[in-house]
Amino acid sequence: MSQLLVRPVEHSDVARCIDIRIECLGSLVIGKLPLFRGYREEQKASLHHDIDHKPHVHNWLVVDVKSGEIVAYANWVMYQGGRSNVKEAGKPAIKTLKIVDEHWRLRQAAHDYFQILSKLATTANHRRRGAASLLIQHCLKGADASELPCYLEGSEEGKRLYEKHGFKEVSAKEFDLAEYGLHGVCKLTEMVRESTKPVGMETTRAGFTASS
User: Could you tell me which residue ranges the N-acetyltransferase domain spans (predicted)?
Assistant: First the structure.
């Protein structure tokens, strides 16, 4: 089996990383919604902007060394001074979705639940190779070096993976997708992993977020 390598996302990687996110998560992890008009272009532009202007937003990928193929992608945010009030920041964008997206009600419900929505995704034909674990371990190494706890909201599949890396459940919420014209129930779990820090050191209210 080929070696897997973790490295930062570069501008030339953006289109492939967005494709992986869409393949795994759709345009929203809850219900894996189809794309609305302009979604792909919007997400690519956002990722390009993050790379150039947001050093606290970390975008990393896993590449198969032999083939050169990007097989997994993750995004997380490091808050040295605590998480900001991100719930208010995205509300104007939600309003505009009423025009372009029939699923805007579910997006609003997700927006009200998520404090931050970041991404962790692996291509279907490269799962169970450890790529997602490599990305999580890379993030945790940075968090522990900064003595920061980590926070995330994960799917049922993601929850099992995060538990293996020391995350513990805080609370959970079920979304009845029938209320939004879809089928099934989607459960998301809030999880926290405390940092490894010297005894007596106070923990800052900060960390990273991810969703898979």
Answer: 4-192
Say how many domains are in the chain.
Answer: 1
- Domain span at residue 112 reads 4-147
112-141 pLDDT, tens digit per residue, is 555 443 578 888 777 888 899 999 999 888
pLDDT in tens, 46-59: 999 999 999 988 99
DSSP state letters, the chain = ---EEEEE--GGGHHHHHHHHHHHHTT-TTTTPPPPTTHHHHHHHHHHHHHHH-TTEEEEEEEETTT--EEEEEEEE--TT----HHHHTHHHHHHHHHH-TTHHHHHHHHHH-S----EEE-GGGTTSSHHHHHHHHHHHHHHHTT--EEEEE-HHHHHHHHHTT-EEEEEEEEEGGGGT--SEEEEEEEEE-----TTPPPPS-------
Which of 33-37, 89-93, 104-108, 139-143 shows the lowest mean pLDDT across its residues? 89-93
**Could you tell me the pTM of the whole model?**
0.77
CATH number at residue 11: 3.40.630.30
